[in-house]
Amino acid sequence: MILHALLLAAEVHVFAAASLSDALKQIAASYERQSSDRIVFNFGSSGMLARQIEEDAPADLFVSADEARMNSLAQKGLVDPKTRVSILSNSLVIIGTADLEKADRIAIGDPATVPAGTYARDYLRKIGVWDRVQPKLIPLENVRAVLAAVESGNADAGFVYRTDAMIGHARVAKEITNGPAISYPFAVTTHAESRDAARRFLNYLKSKRAAAVFRRYGFIVR
Question: pTM above 0.70?
């Protein structure tokens, strides 16, 4: 029986947005205890991960922090549309100081590759201060890098998700309630080597047990 389970075990490679790292690690640990499969994560900015998938990186499941990066892969036929689902949301906050006009250095995820940075840019444009604060911006590789920059004093302010602020030590100066809608889509890739195992893990991510963990880390479960 044990040998049979080992033979059926699969390694699922999950490419996921950095903001989900803590929640997904906890969920995966629980899943592995009840499954013969092993979950292997690659965390980073959604744009960087999408580019890796375009370059045939071994991803079985992609979890993006925005719909745009998932849409880009879908248009290229790189994700299975039948598996795509958006089950999480979040909110954007400013940490450090909320007075962006007076701040000298503002950390932000690189809008070209980091959804949190894209959301922040759209918000700054909406309130009409993008052109004034743009010279102060420090573009970084993901939201965790933004969090670290503010916590270390290398930036006066930063844009991160509320969930990142919850695990950090930086002061939340402002929660953005009028920003763009934040959505996390999940999908199995079309070139997944462990397609069935990826579907099994995706189903678990949609379960009530996983939802409880996501909520514990501050995510909004749809």
Answer: yes
